[in-house]
Amino acid sequence: MSRPLQITVLGATGSIGLSTLDVVARHPRRYQVFAVTAFSRVAELYKVCLAHRPRYAVVADEVQARSLQAQLSLDGLTTQVLAGEGGLCEVAAHPEADVVMAAIVGAAGLRPTLSAVQAGKRVLLANKEALVMSGGLFMQALRDSDAVLLPIDSEHNAIFQCLPSDYARGMAEVGVRRILLTASGGPFRELPLVDLESVTPEQACAHPNWSMGRKISVDSASMMNKGLELIEACWLFDAKPEQVEVVVHPQSVIHSMVDYVDGSVLAQLGNPDMRTPIAHALAWPERIESGVSALDLLRVGRLDFQAPDEERFPCLRLARQAAEVGGTSPAMLNAANEVAVEAFLERRIRFTEIASIIGDVLNCEASVPARCLEDVLTADRRARVLADSWLDRHGR
Length: 396
Ligand code: NAD
Ligand code: MG
Fold this sequence. Notes:
This protein has helices at 15-25, 42-52, 62-74, 84-93, 110-118, 128-143, 154-162, 201-205, 214-222, 224-237, 275-283, 297-300, 314-325, 329-345, 353-364, 373-393, and strands spanning 5-10, 31-37, 56-59, 80-83, 99-102, 122-125, 148-151, 176-183, 244-248, 254-260, 265-269. By secondary structure, the protein is an alpha/beta fold. It folds into 3 domains: 5-151, Rossmann fold; 153-319, no CATH class; 326-389, RNA polymerase sigma factor, region 2, helix turn helix motif (Rna Polymerase Sigma Factor, Chain: A, Orthogonal Bundle), CATH 1.10.1740.10. The strands form 2 sheets. A 7-stranded parallel beta sheet has the order 4-3-2-1-5-6-7, sandwiched between helices. Strand 2, helix 2 and strand 3 (56-59) form a beta-alpha-beta unit. The termini are far apart. The structure holds nicotinamide-adenine-dinucleotide and magnesium ion. Residues 153-155, 229 line the site of magnesium ion.
């Protein structure tokens, strides 16, 4: 085999970032960590640097960068520490990086992920918010470059695995009727509706099947995660919102399905462990060991399916509406959700107010066409201002 592929891990200290490093470390002859980035958990990043000895590390600001640089130099590491969004974009687009794992959470990942796309990398997309915000522009940047985009979100990775290799010809052309996007339903699937008002961040973050970062855990509890994934699926697979059906499947063993016109339904199954889609996307079209144990169907026993309850999960309806409206609507939905989720995690609002804030923001501001990145970023900023003003008005 030729030299190891050089991997940049954006968001290396997060749940996806650490799972990526775990898979990469199992294949030292195949992959080498080129760059790692973190935002606030610099002590974690320091440990990652000691373990993987990357060429670059990126932190939030110059002060953190100087302190991490001094520590690493004392340990005899030649890792160069960069700071800020400029540093993130630099390691994402660096000529020597072959693969970029986009695993920053939220809108903060947009520019670095786009930089990787524009530089023609193999981009492993976990940061769904980036695609939700900038959809058409993101996909155009992909067409304009030599980049290869591989979905990490378990559902989209599953759909990708169930589609024929020439799916880009179009859903109808390759005989696809519908995409069946599975959802666990999160920790509150069966909670009495009256109790939803008083759930805590700890309850929301205790996902029954997956261990994830706090923001996506809250999104899973509100099913906004499924809403964002619906928008993500529309862009990735060139589907219309009505061609994507959400199916609640509490066991999270089927990661999603593709329904063909001849009546065949193809599904991808596995234990709920993100190292499977990560390993798949790293090695595609080959297969490598991921560290995930074999699926024991006899232990799983049964697979259940339900329709999603939109009264319980209004965020799902809001996301579907944003997908249908298009333009800057998904960017506003995402930004309002980010503000609301943060306020919920800080115990400033109730869980049920997340949807109220997003609904309010989408009602206040009309969607406009997203012709350039500035249109998207303006919509993002405007939605944050509106969401903040909701918090002010309600004394939070
Ligand atoms: P996490 O909170 O565990 O980690 C987030 C990472 O992003 C951290 O390394 C953090 O330092 C970095 N980060 C946060 N804010 C930043 C900022 N402003 N600037 C630069 N870096 C910043 O999140 P996660 O669960 O690993 O999720 C990461 C992304 O992957 C999200 O978009 C999420 O939706 C997606 N995803 C996660 C899972 C999962 O199982 N965790 C599954 C599917 C998709
Ligand atoms: Mg997912």
